[in-house]
């Protein structure tokens, strides 16, 4: 809803990202995503500090 794109599109993107960048942890009906790729994590940290 926030991104204003179809749920199916979001699912497809997350599926691709899980192969290389993201980790998915299922807790009941919910799935929590976190960055598993150390390079991507470093880039995110750098971007946080430049805002």
What does this structure look like?
- The two termini are 24 Å apart.
- Helix content is 49%, strand content 24%.
- The protein has one domain.
- Strands 1-2 form a two-stranded antiparallel sheet.
- It is built from two helices and two strands; from the N terminus they run αββα.
- By secondary structure, it is α+β, with helices and mostly antiparallel strands.
- It is globular.
- β1 and β2 form a beta hairpin.
- It comes from Bacillus cereus.
- This is Helix-turn-helix transcriptional regulator.
- InterPro entries: WH-like_DNA-bd_sf (IPR036388), WH_DNA-bd_sf (IPR036390).
Provide the residue-averaged pLDDT. Answer: 92
Indicate the proportion of strand residues. 15-25%
Distance between the termini: 24 Å
Number of helices: 2
Order of helices and strands: HEEH
Tally of structural domains: 1
The largest sheet is: 2 strands, antiparallel
Strand order of the largest sheet: 1-2
Question: Which overall shape is indicated by the principal axes computed on the Cα atoms?
Answer: globular
Assembly context of the chains? single chain
The chain-level structural class is alpha+beta
Fraction in helix:
40-55%
Please tally the β strands and state the result: 2
Rg from Cα: 13 Å
Uncertain regions: pLDDT < 50 for 5+ in a row?
none
Protein name: Helix-turn-helix transcriptional regulator
Organism: Bacillus cereus
InterPro entries: WH-like_DNA-bd_sf, WH_DNA-bd_sf
Features:
51 residues, alpha+beta, two-stranded antiparallel sheet, 24% strand, globular, WH_DNA-bd_sf
